[in-house]
Design goal:
The complex is a heterotrimer. Chain A is α+β, with helices and mostly antiparallel strands. Chain A has 2 domains: 33-193, no CATH class; 225-327, no CATH class. Chain A has helices at 3-28, 57-62, 64-72, 79-88, 92-95, 125-135, 177-188, 198-205, 270-289, 295-302, 321-327, and strands at 51-56, 96-103, 116-121, 139-144, 147-152, 162-168, 171-175, 213-218, 228-229, 241-242, 246-254, 259-267, 304-309, 312-319. In chain A, helix 10 (295-302) packs antiparallel against helix 11. Chain B has 10 helices and 14 strands. Chain B starts with a strand and ends with a helix. Chain C is mainly alpha-helical. Chain C has one domain (24-274). In chain C, 67% of the residues lie in helices and 0% in strands. In chain C, helix 2 (43-53) runs antiparallel to helix 4 (75-100), helix 4 (75-100) packs antiparallel against helix 7 and helix 7 (123-154) packs antiparallel against helix 8. The chains are: A alpha+beta, B alpha/beta, C mainly alpha. At the A-C interface, helix 1, strand 13 and strand 14 of A face helix 1, helix 7 and helix 8 of C.
């Protein structure tokens, strides 16, 4: 074999080894989820789910933001955490891995919320169950497809206001009775109803892996957002700027080593996306213009970028903690001590 | 005679310059010399046959096919180009192997043919040395080897003896004559008459892009008697050299150079002169020898004027 | 002159079909073998090792000193900058320029083109073999560096979460390959078309390709706009580029890039097949 072929072969071996290592990391990574960032058990969520949010507790606790929070606490740990650990054996900072919130009606006026909270971590099931049964008044339980579901404040009609259950040893689900029971039943039957929600799955799969927090959803997520913003004439005038409706929204973020935020919104079409991008850029520019009064706003503005790709708008922000600190309101300066009154001659 | 190379009113020009002008001729089996001074159109004539140039007008056919645009011809055509150019990092053996692979042979056949070609040009011992370390003569020989390694029916050799020492020159001349006797068509281009004469009696005389004459070299030789061959020699003892050669019947005249080391001889029979001068050259300490071959120019001038 | 019987033009005993050129793939493979040696072991390759391999030691430095660096840039963001800005925008196109423009030009300048053009092979197989050798050489230099850089930067905090980033690595490797093929095809065409293609090539890379940052449809007349749109995790551009940065749809990018490769290579093959190479003597 010629020397040149040896070089090419050597390079191929390096690349192949790298690819094998990568594939190994992909399939053996404990953080690998069934769909995007969701673990397999979360696929039991109802098919009608319209939004999902996630928090990587481990990354959050390891972030500088949490470290600041921990340092700012007056006591070593909040009392609530102490009590929780005492009663349930659960230390959120140590035992929780992921928290997911999913629902189909995010705070729609006149409708009761149907949010489900899924917590993944390490639980002492016996201790947690005992805590639920003994510490909470009006708690009942029922067997749903072989799984114990705890119901809180069950009314005379048999409809409780809340419920919780263990999907498995590592997963606790909480929410309305109907949604918890629906999830438990699907899990027991080995079903994955969420896979029928193609739109949501597509959004989940485009969540950036390794994000500390993320959020995906359709218009439901944005139902509380304003449809228009005040125009140059001020609020309530006919010159308000109408915001284009978004078909879907995805937010991912990290907190280490700086606050990173990526927001992707799908507009109705390309012109709408461009329109929205221009509005956002306008706000960023306005912030920059205020630099004379607040120089830190200029830094913040320069940390934000807005791009479009067909009908998608992408806003990215990379904000160092120093800039965030400078944006915090400063405590009022205490008045200087009065000089002592001159003594009488 | 079966025509292997055919030129039918072939012309080739580069802008306003006409390199070959309305040439009609054929070349058949055996060795044919293409003779002409520098710039006469020999290279263009050869390159048209080698398919490297397309005729601006007319036709050039090799083995019945148009030379330009027929790469399959090179299964049976070998070309020894004039430039001294190689992939210097390759050994002689690797060079031949690479080119034989490009001719479609499998590895075992490539190896056999490469070894055979190296033997034909007496480069077997230097086969594993890089061409970059070869002498001028060795480079010329390896170039020759690549042109005949695939056993071609037609060989186009552009100045094949350029830079060769007398021993290797004789070797190549013998090889070319052998190839001719085997019935191959060998076209050898040169501007040195006696080189061509050593290989063949059939020549094509080319000058200013036209074929001036074709036929037996003896006819040229007869003309040469009126236009003797000039040889310049540089010696340690030029007078001793002069004393040794002046008595020879084929030496027509002898002059000493201005610097005192040079001797210029005019001879009607250069081959005999070269054979006879060897001993005298050693004794007189000849360090340099060249032939400006002005006589060929004058032959051409004669033919043009005729 | 006595007649000399010609050597009969019988079919050779080795079984070759002498009525046709050597089959395309066989000929291209032979040219590839011949060219690879000269391409890998050249002074040009020494320069390219430095150019294409630079991110790997930089990643090592980043990894070693990350705690002392200002926290503006995360490890994966730095990897994104390396891929999008260093490789796709600069280093790979430069590598393509210096190798691909010289595929035929080197042979012409070295006067070895005659040996290739006097073999029973189609000229297009010469171009194919040389292009394949160029790809093998540049990929052998670039891909290992990409893989090493990825692992050096993503495993700073251990292997947890690396699996989730692996799809980006494979996608980036694909973009690296596409970049070398596309620019290689373009510069091969320039090398065959122009006598001195390097200066026009540099002007193309550092003047024309700036149109990728222009508004409207202008970016679609560049190569880099399509390639960088294929990078999933590219960091946001800064300054003026940010205002006009466009990300073109993936399907469009792949179609455009594929079309460019075919058109450039076909044009180069046609020109090379019909051109005469008159060597100065």
């Amino acid at each position: 074999m010629t020397r040149s072929r040896l070089v090419v072969l050597g390079a191929t071996v390096v690349v192949a080894a790298g690819a094998m290592a990568a594939l190994g990391a992909l399939y053996l990574d404990p953080a690998r989820a069934a769909v995007g960032p969701l673990p397999p058990q979360a696929l039991s969520l109802p098919a009608g789910t319209r939004y999902v949010m996630g928090l990587d507790v481990k990354r959050f606790v390891a972030s500088p933001l949490y470290a600041k929070y921990a340092a700012a606490r007056t006591s070593n740990r909040p009392q609530a955490f102490e009590e929780l650990e005492q009663k349930t054996g659960l230390n959120p900072e140590r035992d929780l891995d992921q928290v997911y919130i999913a629902g189909s009606q995010a705070g729609v006026p006149g409708r009761t919320g149907d949010a489900l909270v899924v917590v993944v971590g390490r639980f002492d099931r016996a201790k947690v169950a005992r805590a639920i049964e003994t510490e909470k008044r009006g708690v009942t339980s029922k067997n749903v497809s072989g799984t114990v579901v705890y119901l809180f404040n069950e009314s005379a009609s048999g409809k409780g206001s809340g419920a919780t259950a263990f999907l498995d040893d590592d997963t606790l689900v909480m929410g309305t009775q109907a949604s918890v029971e629906q999830t438990v039943t699907a899990r027991a039957r080995g079903e994955a109803p969420l896979r029928n929600n193609a739109a949501l799955l597509a959004l989940l799969e485009s969540v950036r892996p390794g994000s500390t927090f993320w959020m995906v959803g359709d218009q439901t997520l944005l139902s509380n957002m304003p449809k228009a913003i005040p125009g140059p004439g001020g609020p309530g005038t006919s010159q308000s700027i109408e915001l284009p409706a978004l078909k879907s929204l995805m937010v991912t973020g990290d907190l280490d080593p700086q606050v990173s935020l990526d927001i992707t919104g799908e507009a109705a079409d390309e012109p709408a996306a461009k329109n929205l991008a221009d509005v956002v850029r306008g706000f960023v520019a306005l912030a920059s213009l205020q630099a004379n009064q607040k120089p830190e706003l200029k830094q913040l503005a320069s940390a934000i970028s807005v791009t479009t790709e067909a009908s998608r708008v992408h806003v990215a922000a990379r904000v160092p903690y120093e800039v965030l600190d400078s944006l915090q309101p400063r405590p009022p300066r205490s008045a200087p001590p009065r000089p002592p009154a001159p003594s009488a001659p | 005679m079966t025509a292997t190379l055919e030129y039918v009113r072939a012309s080739r020009w580069y802008g306003p310059v006409i390199a070959l002008n309305d040439v009609t001729t054929t070349v058949g089996p055996g060795v044919t010399g293409l003779l002409g001074p520098n710039g006469a159109g020999k290279s263009t004539f050869l390159k048209l046959a080698a398919g490297q140039l397309a005729p601006s007008q007319g036709e050039v056919r090799v083995l019945g096919r148009p030379a330009w645009g027929s790469p399959e011809l090179f299964h049976r055509v070998g070309v020894c180009p004039e430039p001294d150019a190689f992939w210097e990092g390759l050994t002689g053996f690797q060079f031949l192997m690479a080119l034989l692979r490009l001719t479609g042979f499998d590895d075992a056949e490539c190896r056999r043919r490469a070894e055979q070609a190296l033997e034909q040009v007496a480069l077997t011992e230097a086969r594993d040395r890089k061409i970059g370390g070869y002498s001028k003569g060795m480079r010329q020989r390896i170039k020759m080897a690549q042109s005949l390694a695939h056993d071609p029916q037609v060989l186009l050799l552009d100045e094949p003896l350029s830079g060769m020492d007398p021993v290797n020159r004789r070797r190549i001349v013998d090889l070319v004559k052998k190839l001719g006797r085997e019935g191959r068509t060998v076209l050898v281009s040169s501007h040195i008459l006696h080189e061509v004469e050593a290989m063949t009696r059939r020549v094509l005389l080319i000058h200013n892009g036209r074929i001036l004459a074709e036929g037996d070299v003896r006819e040229i030789r007869d003309l040469m008697d009126e236009h003797p061959h000039t040889v310049a020699l540089r010696a340690r003892d030029p007078r001793a050299l002069a004393r040794a050669v002046v008595g020879s019947t084929h030496v027509l005249s002898l002059t000493f150079g201005a610097e005192g080391e040079w001797v210029t001889v005019q001879t009607a029979r250069p081959d005999e002169f070269y054979s006879s001068v060897v001993d005298a050259a050693v004794e007189a300490g000849v360090s340099e020898m060249y032939s400006p071959d002005e006589n060929l120019e004058s032959v051409f001038k004669y033919l043009v004027a005729r | 002159m006595s007649a000399i019987p010609a050597v009969p033009a019988a079919a050779p005993a080795d079984g070759r079909d002498v009525s046709r050129p050597v089959p395309f793939l066989r000929a291209a493979r032979a040219v590839f073998d011949l060219s690879l040696e000269g391409m890998v072991w050249s002074r040009r390759s020494l320069l390219m090792i430095l150019l294409l391999g630079l991110p790997a030691p930089l990643a090592l430095v980043f990894r070693t000193f990350i705690t002392r660096l200002p926290p503006r840039v995360g490890a994966f963001d730095f990897y994104g900058v390396v891929i999008a800005f260093y490789y796709v925008r600069n280093a790979l196109p430069l590598a393509a320029l210096f190798y691909a423009t010289a595929l035929i030009a080197d042979e012409v300048e070295g006067k070895t083109i005659t040996y290739l053009l006097t073999r029973p092979i189609q000229r297009v197989s010469v171009l194919a073999g040389k292009f394949a050798a160029y790809l093998a050489t540049t990929l052998a230099l670039a891909l290992p560096a990409v893989v090493l850089t990825f692992f050096l930067l993503t495993t700073i905090r251990g292997w947890t979460g690396v699996g989730a980033l692996v799809p980006d690595l494979f996608r980036d490797m694909g973009v690296v390959v596409l970049t070398l093929v596309t620019y290689g095809a373009f510069f091969t065409l320039m090398g065959v078309l122009l006598r001195r293609p390097v200066i026009p090539g540099l002007l193309f890379l550092f003047v024309w390709e700036l149109l990728a940052n222009a508004p409207g449809y202008l970016p679609r007349f560049t190569i880099t706009a399509y390639l960088r749109s294929l990078i999933h995790h590219r960091p946001p551009d800064e300054g003026l580029a940010e205002i006009f940065a466009q990300v073109l749809p993936t399907a469009l990018c792949l179609e455009a890039v594929g079309g460019m490769i075919v058109v450039f290579l076909a044009a180069a093959a046609w020109i090379f097949s019909n051109r005469e190479y008159v060597l100065d003597q």
